[in-house]
Specification:
Strand order of the largest sheet: 1-2-5
Strand content: 15-25%
CATH topology: Nucleotidyltransferase, domain 5
Order of helices and strands: EHHEHHEHEHHE
Shape: globular
Helix content: 40-55%
CATH class: Alpha Beta
Number of domains: 1
CATH architecture: 2-Layer Sandwich
Amino acid sequence: MSIGGVWCPKSESRRISDIVRLIKDKHKARGELKWTKVSDAKVGFYKELLEYFFDTREIRFRCLVVTDKSKLNHSYFNQGSHDTFYYKMYFSMLRPILSPTNRYNIYLDIKDTRSKNKAQKLREVLCNDVYDFTRQMIVKIQHIHSRESQLIQLADLLIGAVSFRNRGLSASSAKSTIASELESKIGQSLTQSTSLYTEKFNLFIFTPSSNV
């Protein structure tokens, strides 16, 4: 299981989104940008997106990987709920990104009809963690469809490459090529955690304990 996201200054989000659209138009990449669409015919397109990501200092990425979901003991740790664990992981993924001196708008890929309530709970927990009881640090957490956001689509590509490596897959030569390109860019394997202080491309590989 992999949870991740890209972030940038609000003032840059429109410009970055427009450039991603231009790259898509250049390569005649129709519809949503998705990891599941990576194919040999479009390898050049995905490589150019990676170049743009690494050349653009305003965009950063963080991903949390749970290496073995079979070891998760939801009944003991998460009140019997996979959803509770899912949002705990969202908290762990987002917390190192956030600073109480900044203001954030957080957009999550919509998953189900209960998303609104869960998003508000996540906002509450994140703010309480930094004693922001007036809820000023996080302006909003909103679920949107990925088709509405070029940044969410870019995150999907990066998360997909990380997940591909950590699942030990190799059947797709195109996906293997993109994962290898990404590893070359960051100078390490996608199956290893980076330093917590790595800002451009931050990875945390979490292995659940089977003990309680």
